[in-house]
Amino acid sequence: MPRGHRKMKQQAFDFGDVTVHEYADALPSNKPLTARVKKGSTIKKEVKTRILKKNMDELHWYEKDLEDFDIVPDEEDLSDTELKDDGNSHKIHTKKDAEKKKLKLDRHASAGVVYPVDIWFLLARYIYPEDIQSFACLCKGAYSVVRCVQFWKQLYLRWYNKQSELPVSLHPYNLDCVHGLQARVIRSLFYMYRPFADHLKSVIPFQSEPDQLIGQTCLRIWHDKYSWNFKFTKSSRTVSYSNIPRGICSSGFDSWHKDLFYNQENNCCILQVTSKEYQSIPIVMGLVLNKISLSVSRDMRHHRLRMVFDSVMKLVSKDQSQSIEVILDPVVNLKILHWWDPKYINS
After folding, report:
1. Which InterPro entries does its entry note (predicted)?
2. What are the residue ranges spanned by the domains of the chain?
3. Rounded to whole angstroms, what are the CA distances from 42 to 13, 14, 45, 160?
4. Helix (H) or strand (E) holding 170
5. Distance set, CA 196 to CA 188, 199, 342 (Å)
6. Residue 223 contacts by C-beta under 8 Å, 6 or more apart in sequence?
7. Chain segment 187-215, per-residue pLDDT in tens
């Protein structure tokens, strides 16, 4: 605060002689004049207030404090609650009233422009595969387009290339079958769409983190020469209704056969471990992976993989008598293949 402001405030409180004219014009603020005016404390207070206000008006705005300004709130910002004090009503602004005002403004605010679904179908033709999730989160219209069969057919035909070596199940004539179309289109993109294919080729050995498999159930084990494959699935209590296989005569077969998002291999992955030599391992199918660790082998040139399986998931395993331990040493390569990977072996 400037030094001049302090001097002006000191001068404002220095009262000299008060004239008779100032006493005559000074009236109590709350009580009407019904008798002879006396030189009481009320009149002196009124005179001091007038002189102080007069001196404060001579100050510049930047020399005043916030308390020196007369701030008059708007009627909309005030609460409807009134407190009566000495015959005067005062409105109090509370936090609850501010929330009510905000809700009222949100209701009256514009809800935005709702475009027809045809526009989102036209925009969907120019969406890249890696931007599908962002496109679906724009609005309900874009989300409904992503859930249409026509969207996935157009996406497949946009990136289809005759030179790409597609499996028989991913050929164009299979587009007429709606059952599981989304999963087939996603798998085919990892063959035809170059950014997806290059991403899988750039994966180096031991890049995948095996810790993500903890808590999953081992479904199947098979080996090919020196390569062991463990198929895992996320153990969930609820199974998706669309992923339950159904027969032709079962109820709801028509709606199940037209399910666009059917994918029986969802939440499944394969742990592929390549060893330098053949090793026999115990049977762990149907057991839950509790621990997995990758360390340095005894020859200090390769890796050593250790997995501990049990019937249930145990966070703190004091009794390891029922657990089964699988050790592969030496390990040359380790990969985790998801269901969309071309190397994923469909069981």
Report:
1. TMEM183
2. 3-68, 117-201, 210-240+251-338
3. 17, 18, 5, 94
4. none
5. 10, 5, 11
6. 229, 278
7. 999 999 999 988 888 878 788 889 999 99
